[in-house]
Specification:
It contains 10 helices and 7 strands. It has helices at about 5-20, 25-30, 35-40, 50-60, 80-95, 140-160, 180-185, 190-195, 200-205, 245-255; strands at about 100-110, 110-120, 125-135, 165-175, 215-220, 230, 270. Strand 2 and strand 3 form a beta hairpin. The longest helix has 21 residues, at about 140-160. It starts with 5 loop residues before the first helix and ends with a strand.
């Protein structure tokens, strides 16, 4: 695992904080550190290891040699602000429904390794929800295989955290774009078979804590709040246009800078899940 500079760590902490909609004061309160320390860390002035660890844990991550928060997959590990915003919105959604949440949980299966975007545990129902956040859809079959693997490997994470899991549910939340709507229409039959719980039924599973009998899929707009964060795709009955043309338009809408993903090959004998 590569080391991380003070400046990069500060940007990572700041991005995680903003993705959750927290002020520096709110992060300071959750991490039990002075607000001045949060300000200094985000400015790249470093901090004590114990302090940095508390801040990362408060954000749902962990501190080893680097902070485990959403990153883009290019060689420079540039932080993907758009994906981070989506994960933050999904986290707030699950926490509001009573779940304890952790993000960016690394899992391994032989030479394969990946990171689960978000895990939510409902202690009352003993339900573990595996959430995969997608800002774009490219491969229906690949997505199905990915979440199936996550659903199996997530139990290792649960055991490490002492969660007594009775059932595992899978939720795919896709950024609400016209491009995604077009993909779902073009792959209607495949996606309906892979993710049968859609539309109003899927919304009921999240907000009304109804049993989840299969994988669910909903559209996600992280710029909204409350129940309006998630909604139906056009193919599932939504009548209004998607709020964004594509992922690039969404990044522009939240004031970020879009970078084309750099093509790169994974190391030998290693497969990295996006």
């Amino acid at each position: 695992m590569a080391s991380i500079s003070r400046t990069t760590l500060g940007v990572t902490i700041r991005t995680g904080r903003i993705a959750r909609g927290w002020t520096q004061r709110q992060l300071a309160d959750r991490a039990c550190v002075p607000q001045s320390v949060v300000c200094a860390v985000e400015a790249g002035e470093g901090g004590q290891i114990a302090t940095l660890e508390r801040m990362c844990v408060a954000l749902g991550g962990e501190l080893r040699l680097e902070a485990h928060l959403p990153y883009a997959g290019d060689g420079s590990r540039q932080i993907d602000l758009g994906h981070a915003r989506c994960v933050g919105a999904a986290r707030r959604l699950l926490e509001a429904s009573g779940c304890t949440c952790v993000t960016e949980q690394e899992v391994m299966d032989g030479p394969w390794r990946g990171r689960i975007d978000l895990l939510g545990f409902d202690a009352t129902a003993r339900r573990l929800v595996v959430v995969e956040v997608k800002t774009e859809l490219r491969d229906a079959g690949g997505l199905e295989r990915q979440v199936d693997r996550y659903a199996r490997l997530c139990l290792d994470v649960a055991r490490r955290r002492g969660w007594r899991v009775g059932e595992v549910a899978v939720a795919v939340l896709v950024l609400a774009t016209a491009e995604t709507d077009a993909f779902l229409v073009a792959n209607r039959e495949v996606m309906a078979g892979a993710f049968p719980i859609r539309g109003r039924a899927a919304i009921g599973c999240i907000f009304d804590r109804e049993p989840i009998r299969g994988r669910l899929l909903l559209m996600l707009d992280p710029c909204r709040r409350g129940r309006r964060v998630v909604g139906r795709a056009r193919v599932d009955g939504r009548r209004t246009p998607a709020p964004y043309r594509d992922y690039r338009a969404f990044v522009a809408a939240i004031g970020g800078k879009w970078h084309a993903p750099a093509a790169r090959s994974p190391p030998p004998d290693t497969v990295v899940a996006a």
